[in-house]
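Dear colleagues,

I hope this message finds you well. In preparation for our joint manuscript, I am sending the Transposase (Acidihalobacter yilgarnensis) sequence together with its predicted structure, so that both groups work from identical material. I would be grateful if you could confirm receipt.
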Amino acid sequence: MSESKRKTFTDEFKAKVALEAIRGVKTVSQIAQEFGVHPTQVGAWKKLLQEEASSLFDAKRGPKPADPSASPERLYSEIGRLKMELDWLKKKSGISQ
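The corresponding structure tokens are as follows:
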């Protein structure tokens, strides 16, 4: 008994097959045979593409949101700057710890 591996398809391939199905020039069976996938899979990819197509145009223009990974760095640098200012002010005013 031989084990067959499940085929994996790239996102580009899935999009290509789904677009071909949406065009409607060929039948789902013809598309499935041409690309070597099951007709049910072609239908599923077509349905997914139709459902998700509206989200492609949801992006709004304007400034991009700040990168959350840079936030801790910025905060630590701000803390350091404020600590140095506080130390300088304490030194200038003559307040000792």
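For the figure legend, we might mention the following. The chain has two domains: 8-59, 67-96. The radius of gyration is 29 Å.

With kind regards,
E.M.
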